Amino acid sequence: MARTERVTVTLPGEVVREVDRREQNRSRFVLDAIRRELARRRREDLRRSIEHPHQDGADVADAGFDAWARSLPEEAAGTLVDLGAGRPLRWIPGEGWVESDE
Fold first, then answer.
1. Mean confidence (pLDDT) of the chain
2. Is residue 55 part of a domain?
3. How far is CA 100 from CA 20, 39, 87, 88, 90, in A?
4. Is 26:17 a contact under the CB 8 Å cutoff?
5. Is 48 part of any domain?
6. Does residue 42 contact residue 49 with C-beta atoms inside 8 Å?
7. Domain that holds residue 21
8. How many domains does the chain have?
9. In the chain, pLDDT over 90 holds for what percent of residues?
């Protein structure tokens, strides 16, 4: 389990009372809210990135992957990725990338 850290957050009293009326575990409530907000911001960052891609990425997308791959020098194509250097991973929703046996 991840290490926990104590933080101090100042909130208006009416907000704290509202949280306490709805939830017994104040820390869990705040943690859930923060995680939802971080996920929302990651989605927003991704949406902005898709709408306004970096020019290098946009050039590749416009040309298409196959055209980009054909444009590479013959001798460089085989050295772009070292297939033996990485670790197999798989995506698990809610958990993220985890090592895989595959």
1. 84
2. yes
3. 41, 24, 8, 5, 6
4. no
5. yes
6. no
7. 13-80
8. 1
9. 39
Q: At what angle do helices 26-51 and 13-22 cross, to 10 degrees?
A: 100
CA-closest candidate to residue 59, choices 50, 47, 68: 68
Asked if residues 87 and 99 have their Cβ atoms less than 8 Å apart, the reply is yes
Is residue 68 within 8 A of residue 60, CB to CB? The reply is yes
Q: Is residue 20 part of a domain?
A: yes
Residue 2 is assigned to a structural domain of this protein: no
Among the listed residues 96, 89, 97, 86, the one whose alpha carbon sits nearest the alpha carbon of residue 35: 96
46-96 pLDDT, tens per residue? 888 888 777 777 776 777 777 777 777 777 666 777 777 788 888 888 888
28-55: average pLDDT: 90
Q: Which pLDDT belongs to residue 77? A: 62
